[in-house]
Amino acid sequence: AFFKEADANGNGLLSLQELAGALSKLCDAAGVDLELSRKEMLELARWVDVSGEGQVNYLEFISSFMPEGLTSSTFHADVMESICTTIWANKAALLRGCLCFDSSHSGKISREELGEALLALSSAAGDASSALLTEEQVMILLDHTKFNSQTGLVRYRRFLDSFQIFDNAPTAPGPSG
């Protein structure tokens, strides 16, 4: 909820100014005085911006405020595995959702349309506690999806077909004989 509220322009990314301002408001609301100037808050935001792009995506944000003892790579793997499994298990429903947005039958939809299809899948699950994908997970997925740089569209069948389930658990040795 903090990330979404801090994202003033709703683009799924936090500018350094958005993050610094939101952190300041959070500290003020909690009655915590970090005694940091605006410049120092922006420096903190730059530290969170691991990619150095001048904006913070959800994974950078989460990684920067990760509880001690939980490794970043384990957390990322768990989040991505959950997202991929959900997409794979609901491929047919997502395809129907994408087709609804593709009125010209081009096989392509925009970032916004893909996001709406993913959120519609979650809202079909019922109440928020049983949502298949959270809004944050949808943002992560959209941030990691390659949209055509000229058209801003993605081929949704290719997108859906990219989700495969592989069993990478070690297999038990067979009987020696």
Could you describe the 3D structure shown?
With 177 residues, the chain is mostly helical. Helices cover 54% and strands 6% of the residues. It contains nine helices and four strands, in the order H-E-H-H-E-H-H-H-E-H-H-E-H. The protein has helices at 2-6, 16-30, 38-48, 58-64, 72-89, 91-101, 111-123, 135-143, 156-161, and strands spanning 14-15, 55-56, 108-110, 153-155. The strands form two sheets. It has a two-stranded antiparallel ribbon with strand order 1-2. It starts with a helix and ends in a 16-residue tail after the last helix.
Count the beta strands: 4
The stretches of 5 or more residues where confidence is low (pLDDT under 50) are none
Question: What string gives the helices and strands in order?
Answer: HEHHEHHHEHHEH
Q: Find the structural class using helix and strand composition.
A: mainly alpha
Bulk shape: globular
N-C termini distance: 58 Å
Q: Sheet with the most strands?
A: 2 strands, antiparallel
Strand order of the largest sheet: 1-2
Mean pLDDT: 80
Count the helices. How many? 9
Please tell me how large the radius of gyration is.
20 Å
Share of helix, binned = 40-55%
Question: What is the beta-strand fraction?
Answer: 5-15%
Concise overview:
By secondary structure, this protein is mostly helical.
Question: In terms of topology, how is this protein built?
Answer:
Blueprint: H1 2-6, E1 14-15, H2 16-30, H3 38-48, E2 55-56, H4 58-64, H5 72-89, H6 91-101, E3 108-110, H7 111-123, H8 135-143, E4 153-155, H9 156-161
Antiparallel strand pairs: 1-2, 3-4
Helix pairs in contact: 2-3, 6-7, 7-8
